[in-house]
Each structure stands twice: as structure tokens, then as C-alpha cells.
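Q: Predict the bound structure with phenylalanine.
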Amino acid sequence: MKNNREQWGSRLGFILAASGSAVGLGNIWKFPHMAGQNGGAAFTIVYLICILIVGLPILLGELSIGRRTQLSPVGAFNRLSGSSNWKWVGYLGVGSAFVILSFYGVVGGWTLKYTIFSLTGGFDSLSGSPELSGQVFSSFIESSFQPIIWQIVFMAFCIGIIIKGVKSGIEEGAKIMMPLILIILGFLVVKGLSLEGGRKGLEFLFKPKFSDLNPSSIVLALGHAFFTLSLGMGTMITYGSYLNKKQNLMNSAIWIILLDTFIAMLAGTAIFTIVFAMGADPSSGAGLIFVVLPTIFPQIGGGIIWGTLFFFILFMAALTSAISILEVITAYFIDQKGWSRFKATFLFGGVITLVGIFCSLSLGNLNVTAFLNITFFDFLDELSSKYMLPIGGALTAVFIINKWSVNTFLDEILTGVQEKHLNRGLLINVLKVLLVVSSLIVGLIILNELSDLLFGSSLQKMVGL
Ligand code: PHE
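A: Predicted complex:
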């Protein structure tokens, strides 16, 4: 074990950095519209069950693998499996990081542009006019230069923070940004609830409508549970590798899950109370944030401030997640290739920015995957969230059951736990059941997606659901 490996400065710092990774575009942008379109509270309940059954065991698994080996994914799988092929699960993680950050950085740039756009009063001319707002947004993301400049600025923030190191860069950044996100979201929720008619938004999001729930929304909730907790690509292995043996992993995992879920609920509440109070369309899906919200902010008192704050927290949430993605790649080159942190981050941050430029251009007039009938941007998004992350997560669960042993996994979880009178036999069985169930569930999602891709019909359609 290397003695000079960097470590988190404090337990709180680690929890904020790991939940900073979890809280991202997935919480503030994806969750609200997915819940809104799939039965509101009914979707929320299924999502919470997925988080507990699939998310918790795999999150614990990743943190334990990282802390036990004090290595990032490739080295970690290599060491625990005695140099067998399992290291490829680590490589898959590094590959996923590459793929995800390429398009994530582009959206990160959009959040920055919209923060400044709001601050300079740009939303005023869009007030009450979703069509115009849609045109403005499309012409921005489809243009060649502007979005690339913003993407480069966003990636520069990300690279700049990682270069400063685990404790003084990543941890310090999270300690500033996470509390800010929570506080500002809190203000936005209060503002939303105080608007006349805002409470209807609460009903929309939290009143169960089980009739709206169908098998595909269950699959969606499962996939999202993975994405939102940053699982399946070794982010949590990497963050776990900077932990010492005194930390209680179970406790930390529960904190990460609670913060992630709480922020998703706050974001949903803030967005839908404002949308309902202003009579806007709540089911406009993915365009809700960049198209609909800019048309409503100018209509509420102090709209410039609220709009700017909203896009600013979206920017910070995206940034803390992007940092955790790039750190997987940086840590690989430090651990396995002996590179300096500066060289690894700068070089690969640069390469990813370059690939990201092609993602951005694919929305306009240079689409390198045109022959597949999909934009390069969507291609990378789907490849990672539908296939790479779930496959990585399921393989991690299989690795723990078949190769590493649940017994050693439990030892690692219990290192740092004070309570000594635990029923080990029972805990081992619970862990086994959870890991088997989660790998089966995830396996099923992947099969479902593959059958949809290859035969144009998903399993649930085939069996007539
Ligand atoms: N969890 C992040 C979000 O919700 C995305 C992410 C995925 C981050 C995978 C790291 C790894 O936006």
C-alpha cells in the first residue's frame, strides 16, 4: 500500500464530496421531469425502493473495494482478483468516465451560459413565450462556437479544481458548493410555495397516481437510481480509496443516499411549484429547464435573481459531478502509470474537452455518428447510461459474490464500526440476497434495452405488458 496516497481531510468533507458526485444534472434536471411524466409520487416511491435495493448494496460495495485496496478501479479489481480478467471492469469504468464527461461537459457549459444569460436580464425578452425561448435555446446549442466556448470554460473549472488535489481541491470545492446548493434550493422552494397556486405543483409531484405507473417507468426508475448515485463506473471506488479505516462506511453510504434523494425532492418541489403557479406546461420533458423556466422567471418578483440562482446551482451541481468523473481517469493514471496529478488531469481533461466539442457540434451541422441516425451527443449519453453504467454495476455485484467473497466485503464494511455484537451470519445473508437481487434486476434492464435495440421491441412489450 502506498503511504503517500492522498486522503480526505474529514468525514464531513468526504460525505460532501461523494454526495457532490451523486447530486448533479440527474437530480435537478432529469428527476423532476421523469417523475412528472411517470406518475409523480408513484414514480418517486419506486425510485426510492430501487435506491435502497440496488443502490445501497452497490454503493457500499464500491466504497469497500476502494477503501480496502486504496486504489482506483483498475488497480483495485486487479489486486482483489489476483491479477485476473476482472481488471477489465475497472477499464470499463475508466471508459465510461470518458464517455460521460464528454457530453456532461457540454451541458455544464449550457448551465454556465444560462446563469450569465439570466444575470444580464436576457430572460426578460422570453417572458411568457415558450416558442421563442425554444428557438433561442436551439439556436444556441446548434451554433458552432458559443456552446464550445462555454464548455471549455466549464471544463477549465473542473480541471483547475482537480489539479489542486483531493483535499485542497475536490474536498474544499464540495465544502463550499454543496451547502450553497442546499441553501439556495431551500430559498427557491420557499419562493415556489409562496406563489399563488404553487402548491398544485406539490400535488403533481407527490400525490400517488399508481395508474400512471407502467413497466417502462419502473425500468426508468431503476436506471436512474444508478445514474444519480454515480454507480457502475468506479467513481465511488475512487472516492472510497481516499478513505481511512476509521470511517463507518454504512453510515456514510446512508448519508450520501439521503442527501442525493433530498436534493432531488427539493429540486422537484422548487421547479413544479413555480411551473404550476405560472400555469406553464409541467410535462414538457427534457426542455423544462432550459426552455420553460426562462419564460417564467421574469414573471415572478425578483425574477432575475431567482433565475440566476437556479442556473447557478445547476452549474455547481454539474461541476461537483464532473469533477468526480474526471477524477476516475486522473486516479487511474496516477495509480497505474505513475503520472503526476497535473499531467494526468490536464492531458485527459483536454482530450475529453476535444471529444466533447464533437458532441456539441453534433447538435448543429457536424454529426460524426450521422450514419447511425443519432447525434453523437445522444449516442454517448445512451451508450453510458443505458449500457456501460448498468453493466459496470452488475459486474461489481457479481465480482463481490463470486470472486471477492461476501465475507471479506462484510469485514470491510464493519471496519470502523463500533458496535461489536452483530449477527454476522444474518448480515452475510442479507448482503448476498441484496447483491444477487440487484445484479439480476440490472441484468434484466440491460436485456430489455438490448432487445429493444436489436429487435425493436422491449421484453415488456413482447410479454404483452
Ligand atoms: N450522479 C450524477 C448526476 O446525477 C452523474 C454521474 C454519473 C456522476 C456517473 C458520476 C458518475 O448527475
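A: DSSP finds 19 helices and no strands in the chain.
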